[in-house]
Amino acid sequence: MYPDGELRRLAAEKASLRQDIALRREECADAAERVARPLEWLDRAVGFWRRFSPVAKLAIVPIGLLIRRRFLRRHKLLGALVRWGPLAAGVARGFGFAARGRNGFAGED
Known about the structure:
3 helices
């Protein structure tokens, strides 16, 4: 059917393809491991959080606020953003509604 030379060439190509496939499998396994690291960390964090009782979860919020107040006093910008951010978002939303109404998108003729 096939001459011996062509069979040898096909065998060499097959061996080369097998090497390439093995290399790609290794690369894919390494990439999957890199992708899974943050997911593994997240899974551990969720498991750790689930170990707490509901009462302890409620206590964590005030304790976190006390720690923030104690150690993060210098970050006044963050506090100002948290305090005034909702108001600024409401004002921006109001301006957006007013602009749409003026352009005829709010049901005007």
